[in-house]
Amino acid sequence: MNLTEKVTNLPLSPGVYLMKDSLGHIIYVGKAKQLKKRVQSYFYNAKGHSPKVKQLVRNIRDLDYILTDTEFEAFMLECQLIKEIKPMYNRKMKNPMAYTYIAIRSNETHRRLEVTYDFSEDEHILHFGPYTSRSTVERAVQGIKESQKILCSSPHSKKAHCLNHSLGLCIGMCAGGEALEKYNEIIDRIIALLNGTDTSILIDMENQMNEAAEKYDFETAAKYRDLAGAVSSLLQKEKVIGFAEENKNIVVMEPINDHTLKLILIKGSRILFRAKIETVPLDLQQLYNDIQSAISDNFRDQSLDSPGTISRHKIDEAQIIYSYLKNSTGSYLIIPEEWLNVENPIELNEAVHGLLKSYFNLEH
């Protein structure tokens, strides 16, 4: 069967597709909720593709696919296969550097906010990250500096105002005095923003967007909307990193169809167990027993596991799980470690009963 026939005969099911070159090497791995529609999109309406995607398509000579029961499983399988195979075009389509950090340096005239690839052990440098998208970080930092008017064009000056001060882009900390005190207050707020304890700077940006829109300055409003979006994305990524570090025990129940569900047990970003369970006829006691047994057999053996190094790959996996839990159409349960370390965990028993009631929309 040639490539065109394979694409035509793809199912409208969740799964992962593996693109191959003329030598049979896997050059790209992707996932889809509907395999046929996603793969066809590469070969039709190519004018809208980026140069990297166009180059990928020119090199595709064959493809394989792996069906999954749910879209969530397709996301996780794609992540796993990219880690194992390291396809050329998956690497090309990501930033080649492993991580980006935001650094605040305090070993100069005044504290300086910058974007860097390097994590320094210098005690005078405070780091936030790692982040996986440098462009998002750069937009976010630019937005923060613009909104707070700390875009100094002479950061090392001690006596004179910079050019940006005359343009209204710098509060004048380059000349010292009261402006430097105000600048230090702003830096403290930025640190609090990145720590997740104070979002007032983000609120400032949203207010600036709204004020511009009220003045019919839609270009400025759109700029602040995009910059505020980059900051929000940055804060979301920090939550994902924290989520990966917490190494949670997660029970997921996803519908496959009207009479079958998928039970998935996850430790941190690692899937420990998955099984299809028939729900017709509905036997809640049997379902409860099956879930409790799976929890006992899988989570208790892993209860002392630490997440290890939070690599870029783990962040990618954690992002999939975190986004799924936040926007889930299925039902899930997060199990605290202390529930696993007692003989008759009342909280766990009640939580599993609650999960089943939620899944089947039962009131009692």
Determine the structural class based on helices, strands and strand pairing: alpha+beta
Mean pLDDT: 85
Radius of gyration: 25 Å
Helix coverage percent: 40-55%
Give, in order, the helices and strands: HEEHHEHHEEEHHHHHEEEHHEH
Strand content: 15-25%
Number of helices: 13
- Kindly report the spatial arrangement of strands forming the biggest sheet: 9-8-7-10
Number of strands: 10
| Distance between the amino and carboxyl termini | 54 Å
Low-confidence stretches: none
Largest β-sheet summary: 4 strands, antiparallel
What general form does the structure show?
globular
Question: What features would you describe in this structure?
Answer:
This protein starts with a helix and ends in a 5-residue tail after the last helix. A 4-stranded antiparallel β-sheet has the order 9-8-7-10, with helices on one face. Strands 2-1-3 form a 3-stranded antiparallel β-sheet. It has helices at 3-8, 35-43, 51-58, 71-85, 88-92, 134-148, 163-166, 178-195, 200-214, 218-246, 284-302, 312-327, 346-359, and strands at 15-20, 26-32, 62-67, 100-105, 112-116, 125-131, 249-257, 260-267, 270-278, 331-335. The chain has 364 residues and is α+β, with helices and mostly antiparallel strands. It is globular, with a radius of gyration of 25 Å. A hairpin with a 2-residue loop joins strand 8 (260-267) and strand 9 (270-278). The mean pLDDT is 85. The longest helix has 29 residues, at 218-246. The protein is 48% helix and 19% strand. It contains 13 helices and 10 strands.
